[in-house]
Design brief:
Layout: E1 24-27, E2 39-42, H1 44-54, H2 68-93, E3 100-101, H3 102-109, H4 113-126, E4 129-132, E5 140-143
Helix pairs in contact: 2-3, 2-4
Bound molecules: zinc ion.
């Protein structure tokens, strides 16, 4: 069947072989429309769908609510990773009676400063390592 009106590009043809007619033609253009300008002929429903995409998403304001379940899920997911890193730090400190200071520890454990910081914080909380070094000195860590 010959369709004389412009059909919607996003709609499938209906039972009668006709697509819902397009109410608008959208062109993706920098202002100079040429034959190559991509265009979309859309029906009213699809125009609404498309224009929705143009609106920025509402910003979600923090603090983010994390459910207990989500917290557990995240913790479990990252557990093996932390365990592995904790073990590296513990192994690096093994036998070091005077402990290791920041740069020595990063080298020995082969972790970045960022992870050394995170992992030692976890180990301190767990009571597996202690801080060493007087105030003013660079702090180090030793096995607890
Ligand atoms: Zn449509």
């Amino acid at each position: 069947m010959q369709q004389t009106t412009l059909g919607c590009d996003w709609c499938a043809a209906g039972k009668n072989g006709l697509r819902p007619y397009a109410v608008s033609t959208l062109a993706l253009t920098n202002g100079k429309r040429t034959a190559k300008t991509p265009t979309l002929d859309l029906c009213a429903r699809h125009i609404r769908q498309l224009t929705k995409q143009f609106r920025p998403m509402k910003k979600v304001r923090g603090p983010y609510k994390i459910t207990k379940q989500e917290r557990t899920r995240r913790a479990t997911k990252h557990d093996p990773m932390w365990k592995e890193r904790e073990e590296k730090v513990l192994a690096a400190l093994k036998g070091k009676e005077g402990g290791l200071k920041g740069p020595e520890l990063t080298k020995a454990a082969k972790l970045t400063k960022h992870y050394i910081y995170k992992v030692t914080t976890r180990l301190l909380e767990a009571g597996k390592v202690k801080r060493v070094g007087a105030n003013g000195e660079r702090r180090g860590f030793v096995l607890a």
